Amino acid sequence: MRIIAHRGLIDGPNSGLENKPDTINRALALGYEVEIDVWLKDNKWFLGHDRPTYEVDFIFLNNLNFWLHAKSIETLERLLTFKHLNSFWHQTDDVTLTSHNYLWVYPGKQMTYHSVCVMPEKFMKIDDIKSLNCMAICTDYCNTVKSIFNR
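Predicted structure:
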């Protein structure tokens, strides 16, 4: 099971840590893939959920272990020019297709084996995640999910 750190978080929700480059690097160092919120503004790249917060160099974004959640249509348009990067845009859609043809599924919606289950902790007991029929899980609780799958 692939485990994706939602906004770089690995031990639960923490708005003060999400999308921070240090948080993201820590998750990567622990072997997790990472979903990050990306903005393009004035031809500069930023991370941040509700607004562009942390400016980063494009070299930082150029990582094959990232799931790049474009936060504006302009950001998505630019990200799609980089075919090697896995990017997507969504809001409350049941499912969206990433640029690498993965099904990014909204919490609690129907999945298939080729889906990424997003935030299972929002709709089920975390101890029951082994029953999910998906190829990856995106969560704030990476360490807990990893320990459940290692049991």
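Summary: The longest helix spans residues 21-29.
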